[in-house]
Amino acid sequence: MTMDPNTLAKGLQNMMNTGSQSLANSNLSRAFHDFMLGSASNEIKLVPAIAEGAKAAFDIAIAPMDPTTKGFDAPTLIMLGTIAYWGVLAVPISYGPTSTTVTPPPLLSTLKISLNARFIKNVKDKLELVDATNKIAEVWASICLGGLAAHIIPPSPSVVTFPIL
């Protein structure tokens, strides 16, 4: 049970040639959501109902994404969506009944810069779709590492922090 960049890359490939910006946005959201559904802390998977709420927050954040709009900035919207998703996960029980708090990864605010650099490099290197989405997924996934979830570990009421993988 881990966040798998391959899941994210395959989902990103579904954004292309949709014929509809709203469908492309939906596929982007689904790609990140499916990636996050693979996450676990203390071997306890992300609670699907909470993840659905997080997906809704991501959807709202990326709703303005439209390459035909002046000032369009995909890296910023993706970063805001990712931060919104992790923000919803901050509620207790996101990773099961023993989890008390979730701390988002510390580098989320760098996602815009990292994605922008990757997008530019993908164009410069003239990468094909599969290679380009793999590279984007690697960057995005690496930024999502470092989240933590605190769990109450019985029988004593000790709280232990575990990484979210």
Describe this structure in words.
- The chain is of the alpha+beta class and 165 residues long.
- It has one domain.
- Helix content is 52%, strand content 13%.
- The protein contains 6 helices and 5 strands; from the N terminus they run H-H-E-E-H-H-E-H-H-E-E.
- The chain has helices at 5-13, 21-37, 48-62, 74-89, 111-124, 129-143, and strands at 40-41, 44-45, 99-103, 148-153, 158-163.
- It has a 3-stranded antiparallel beta sheet with strand order 3-4-5, with no helix packed on it. Strands 1-2 form a two-stranded antiparallel ribbon.
- Helix 1 runs antiparallel to helix 2 (21-37), helix 2 runs antiparallel to helix 3 and helix 3 (48-62) runs antiparallel to helix 4.
- The protein is elongated and about 55 Å long.
- The chain starts with a helix and ends with a strand.
- The mean pLDDT is 93.
Give me a quick take on this structure.
With 165 residues, the chain is of the alpha+beta class. The chain has one domain (5-163).
Features:
single chain; 165 residues; alpha+beta; three-stranded antiparallel sheet; two-stranded antiparallel sheet; 6 helices; 52% helix; 13% strand; elongated
List the helices and strands and how they pair.
Layout: H1 5-13, H2 21-37, E1 40-41, E2 44-45, H3 48-62, H4 74-89, E3 99-103, H5 111-124, H6 129-143, E4 148-153, E5 158-163
Antiparallel strand pairs: 1-2, 3-4, 4-5
Taking Cα atoms only, what radius of gyration do you get, to the nearest Å? 16 Å
**Biggest sheet features:** 3 strands, antiparallel
Secondary structure: helix percent: 40-55%
Structural class: alpha+beta
**Shape, principal axes of CA atoms:** elongated
The total of beta strands comes to 5
Compute the average pLDDT: 93
Give me the number of helical elements. Answer: 6
Number of domains: 1
Uncertain ranges = none
Instruction: Report the order of strands and helices.
Output: HHEEHHEHHEE
Instruction: Tell me the fraction of residues in β-strands, as a range.
Output: 5-15%
